[in-house]
UniProtKB/TrEMBL annotation:
Full protein name: Xanthine/uracil permease family protein
Keywords assigned by UniProt, alphabetized: Membrane, Transmembrane, Transmembrane helix, Transport
Subcellular location(s) per record: Endomembrane system
One Pfam family hit: Xan_ur_permease
Amino acid sequence: MGLGNLTAATPALAVLGLLVIAALQARAIKGAILVGILGTAGAAWFFGLIHGSSLSYHWADLSSTAFQLNIPAALNLKGGIGVSLVEIVFVFLFVDLFDNVGTLMAVTKRAGLVQEDGTVPRMNRILLADSIAMLFGALAARARSPATSRAHRACRWAGAPD
């Protein structure tokens, strides 16, 4: 299984879109990612690279598959730890990591704890405490710890800088 045709117009446009995003980020333009995505989508539409589907979507079309998910088979629970389960664990790992690091940077910047070189003192201890809280929250069937929820709300209310 290969990567496909990398010399076609679609991958070239995707690379161009990434370069536009990188250039806008380097110039510290707010909304660089959104501008890059919308610009790339607009260029794809302009050059006719977006092909619509003739399929129509109706709620009745979902009746054959709705609520038919076989979770044990999807996670391969009968045969041990499958690739699907590992993928799910890694996805949640990175989602939680970036969520926590973003919150941590916003809170520490707002509190004036970020050093001049952009580092946060004792970052490893802070992330360790948060990961332990996340572990016990998962064991208690809570999506996130109350402290993390309060930190997220505080960041939103205070309008923490990016």
